[in-house]
Amino acid sequence: MSRLGDLILLERTRQKLTRKQVAKKCGVSEGYIKDVEEGRRIIQDDQARRILNKLGTSSRNEAEFSLDEIAATVDLGTLAPAPKPAEPAKPAPKPEPVKTSSPEEQSGIWLDALSSVLKPVPVMNAGWIQVSRRMVPIQDGKIEGAKPDKVVYFLAPDDSMRAMRIEKGDLVLIVPQTLPVDGAIMLVEYGAHRCLRRVKLLGNSNILLQSGDRELGAESVHISDIKLVGRAVRVEIAL
């Protein structure tokens, strides 16, 4: 069972709700809630935030879903089991002091628990400034075959790659790649800026950088005149 599944199950049980009732609140199927509680489904950050909000475990409505926000939804005091009442024939034992965790410690617990399955990936703009981040599932310790801390999202700054179905505002997942890959869309640094281009190998260390809004355009450059930052593996469109 996942930590997020634990939280949903405990909160549902505390409120004496059935899976069917939670599913109806959240607009999903009963089987969906069952899979989340039992750790068989990794849900998207917006869906997880909506379920937590419906259960009343989060009062914030942030634009992004972070590990810190997950930790902030946990009230360990409400989830702790109530002490058993003393038997009438025996004196009640002296209660031991309860050690409570600080918000920082609680956040650390959730970060440790979820770091093996989710990774906050930074979203970088064309000036290479982080503007946000997105939670991405980790598989076998990697994201798209790359080390999680080396992966970034690139925020498309314009429509120069519209001919290749990448428009302004789309998020492009980039994995490290310093050598040109023929036919791949790559993040390229040249002319003091970063941009997306499709790469074609020409031979003699020359490559063709293709772009285009409505029609394809191309520019031939020597490999020594540019820096290849990484290869695009996934695009998330802006709606």
Helix amount? 25-40%
Number of strands: 9
Shape: elongated
Number of structural domains: 2
Give the CATH class of the largest domain. Mainly Beta
What is the N-to-C order of secondary-structure elements (H for helix, E for strand)?
Answer: HHHHHHHEEEEEEEEE
Structural class: alpha+beta
CATH homologous superfamily identity of the largest domain? Umud Fragment, subunit A
Number of helical segments with 4 or more residues:
7
The CATH architecture designation of the largest domain is: Ribbon
According to CATH, what is the topology of the largest domain?
Umud Fragment, subunit A
Radius of gyration: 24 Å
| Distance from first to last alpha carbon | 33 Å
Query: How would a textbook summarize the main sheet?
Result: 9 strands, mixed
Instruction: Let me know the average pLDDT.
Output: 79
Task: Bin the strand percentage.
Answer: 25-35%
Parts with pLDDT < 50 across at least 5 consecutive residues: 59-65, 67-82
Strand order of the largest sheet: 2-1-3-4-9-5-6-7-8
